[in-house]
TrEMBL record:
Name of the protein described by the UniProt record: beta-N-acetylhexosaminidase
EC number: 3.2.1.52
Domain Glycoside hydrolase family 3 N-terminal: 16-310
Record Pfam families: Glyco_hydro_3, NagA_C
Species this protein is from: Marinitoga piezophila (strain DSM 14283 / JCM 11233 / KA3)
Biological classification of the source: Bacteria, Thermotogati, Thermotogota, Thermotogae, Petrotogales
Keyword flag Calcium: no
MF terms in GO: beta-N-acetylhexosaminidase activity
Keywords: Glycosidase, Hydrolase
Reaction(s) catalysed (UniProt annotation): Hydrolysis of terminal non-reducing N-acetyl-D-hexosamine residues in N-acetyl-beta-D-hexosaminides
GO biological processes: carbohydrate metabolic process; peptidoglycan turnover
Length: 471
C-alpha cells in the first residue's frame, strides 16, 4: 500500500534534485507550489516540467485565491473576494473562478486551495482579511458555489476552506492557537460548507482552531468535528485535507506523533506538509510506527488511498496546455556529449545580461540565468563574463569541470578568447551554445549542446541533459 498518497508536500525553497527524489520515492497525493517555486513565469514553467516529467499522477495546487492571497505569476490581480461580494453580483465570482482556473490549467495546475468559505465577523483575524466574500453566510454560500462552478468548468479541483469556519477567530493560527467559545452544530458559519457539500465539493480543508463548546482539540484532529459533524450530520463523502501542519496551532501541539494518529483516525484523509524537506520524514516515520503498532486501522487507510487515487485519476492529465513549449525546448536540443562527467564543484560561466539589438529581450532571460544555475548546481562557482569584451571580475577560476554558456562568441573575438582559455585551465569543458548556432563551428570537437534559444526553459533542458550524463 502506498502510504505516501496520504500526504501533500510543499518545498517552498524550490524543487531541487532532493525534492524531486522525495516526490519520486513517496508518490504523494500531490504537491503545492509556493511563491518560492514560481518567482517568475519562467521558474513556474520549469517547476511544472519537473513535476510532469515524473510521469505519475499528482494533484498540483497553489494557494492562489485572488486578492489578498495571490501566488501564481501571470494571473491578473483580482480586487478580492470581499470586493466581489460588495458588487453583489455572483456572476463575478463565477467569472473569476473560471478566469483563474483557465490560467492555472494552462500552466499545469489541476487543483487550487480555494475558495475561502469563511464568514466575516467583527474583529475577525487579519488572516481572513478580504479573502472572505461577506459577513452574510448565505451570500458566502452563493458566491462560493459560483466560484467553485467556475473552477470546475476549467477542470480545476476546488478546495473549500477552512472548515467549520475561521471567521469568528480573532487570532491567526499561523502564529498561535485560536479558540472560539461560541460554536455549535447549527452555527451559521457552517452553512456555506453545507451548501458546497450539497453541490458536490470533493475536497475540504480544515481549520487549525479549537471550537471550545464542541471539543478541546483542534478541528483538524477532532472526531466530533470531522466525523460527527462533517461526515455524519452533513453527509460529506469527499476528502478532508489539513491546513499546513507547520502552522503553530498544529505544530506546537500535535507534531509529529499525536497529530498523525488523531487526524487519520478521526476523519482526516491528507496531511499537508508545507516544509516537506524538513518535516515530512519525521511525520511519515511517526505515521508508519503508528500503523505497525496497530494505532491506525489499515483498512481505514486503504479506503482513503482509494478515494485519493480516484480523484487523481479524475483531474490529472499527462499533458497540459502549455506543456508543448517544454517539448519544443527539449526536442530542439542538439547534444554532442561524448562521455560521462563528474559534476562536483563545477565552474559555471554565464554572460552578463545584454541585449544584442533593439529587437531583443535576451537580457531579461540572462538576468535570472544566474539564479537557475546556482539552484541546479548547489556547489558551483559561478562567474559572469561580458559577452562583448570577454572580461570577468575574477582572474582565477576554481572548479573540477567548466560549463560555459556561450552567447554569440563568433561575433566577439574577446569572448571567444575567454572560451578557448577555459580549455587550457580545465580538464573538461562543456559548452552550452544558447543563441546563434553559428557558434557551433567553433566548438565542433568539444563537448557541447546547442539550445537555439536563450529562454530559461531551453537552458534548463540543456542542464537536464548534462545531469543525465553525470557519473
Amino acid at each position: 500500500m502506498n502510504y505516501g498518497k496520504l500526504f501533500f508536500l510543499g518545498f517552498p525553497d524550490g524543487l531541487d534534485d532532493e525534492a524531486i527524489e522525495i516526490i519520486k520515492e513517496y508518490k504523494p497525493a500531490g504537491v503545492i507550489l509556493y511563491p518560492g517555486n514560481m518567482r517568475s513565469i519562467e521558474e513556474l514553467q520549469i517547476s511544472m516540467d519537473k513535476l510532469y516529467s515524473l510521469d505519475f499522477p499528482l494533484l498540483i495546487t497553489s494557494d492562489h485565491e485572488g486578492g489578498q492571497l495571490e501566488t501564481v505569476p501571470g494571473i491578473l490581480s483580482s480586487p478580492g473576494n470581499y470586493s466581489i461580494g460588495k458588487v453583489n453580483a455572483p456572476e463575478y465570482a463565477y467569472e473569476y473562478g473560471k478566469y483563474s482556473g483557465d490560467k492555472l490549467k494552462e500552466y499545469g495546475f489541476n487543483m487550487v486551495f480555494s475558495p475561502v468559505l469563511d464568514v466575516l465577523h467583527r474583529d475577525s483575524s487579519a488572516v481572513t482579511g478580504f479573502r472572505i466574500f461577506s459577513d452574510d453566510p448565505r451570500k458566502v454560500a452563493e458566491f462560493g458555489k459560483e466560484y467553485i462552478r467556475g473552477l470546475l468548468d476549467s477542470g480545476i479541483l476546488p478546495t473549500a476552506k477552512h472548515f467549520p469556519g475561521h471567521g469568528k477567530a480573532i487570532q491567526d493560527s499561523h502564529e498561535e492557537t485560536p479558540v472560539i467559545d461560541d460554536f455549535s452544530f447549527e452555527d451559521e458559519d457552517i452553512f456555506p460548507f453545507e451548501e458546497a457539500i450539497n453541490t458536490g465539493i470533493e475536497m475540504i480543508m480544515t481549520a487549525h482552531i479549537i471550537y471550545k463548546s464542541l471539543d478541546k482539540e483542534l478541528a483538524t484532529v477532532s472526531k466530533k468535528i470531522l466525523t460527527d459533524l462533517l461526515r455524519e450530520k452533513l453527509k460529506y463523502n469527499g476528502l478532508v485535507i489539513s491546513d499546513a501542519i507547520e502552522m503553530k496551532a498544529y505544530y506546537n501541539n500535535y507534531f509529529p506523533e499525536k497529530g498523525v494518529k488523531m487526524f487519520f483516525n478521526n476523519g482526516g484523509d491528507i496531511l499537508l506538509i508545507a516544509e516537506a524537506r524538513e518535516n515530512f520524514k519525521p511525520i511519515y516515520n511517526a505515521f508508519i510506527n503508528a500503523v505497525e503498532n496497530g494505532e491506525i486501522d489499515k483498512k481505514l487507510l486503504k479506503n482513503k488511498i482509494e478515494k485519493i487515487e480516484k480523484l487523481q485519476k479524475k483531474y490529472y492529465t499527462s499533458e497540459y496546455k502549455g506543456s508543448f513549449l517544454n517539448k519544443i525546448a527539449r526536442k530542439a536540443l542538439k547534444v554532442s556529449l561524448n562521455e560521462k562527467f563528474e559534476l562536483k564543484n563545477p565552474a559555471i560561466f554565464i554572460p552578463k545580461p545584454k541585449n544584442l539589438s533593439q529587437a531583443d529581450t535576451t537580457a531579461n532571460d540572462l538576468k535570472i540565468l544566474e539564479e537557475l544555475v546556482k539552484f541546479e548546481f548547489k556547489d558551483a562557482n559561478v562567474y559572469s563574463y561580458d559577452p562583448v569584451t570577454g572580461e570577468t571580475e575574477e582572474e582565477k577560476f576554481e572548479g573540477n569541470i567548466a560549463i560555459s554558456f556561450v552567447l554569440d562568441s563568433f561575433r566577439f573575438s574577446e569572448q571567444l578568447r575567454l572560451q578557448k582559455r577555459l580549455k587550457r585551465q580545465f580538464k573538461k569543458v562543456i559548452y552550452v551554445i544558447i543563441r546563434n548556432d553559428q557558434d557551433e563551428e567553433l566548438y565542433e570537437s568539444d563537448n557541447h549542446i546547442v539550445t537555439y534559444s536563450t529562454k530559461l526553459i531551453s537552458i534548463y533542458q540543456a542542464i537536464r541533459v548534462i545531469k543525465e550524463h553525470q557519473i
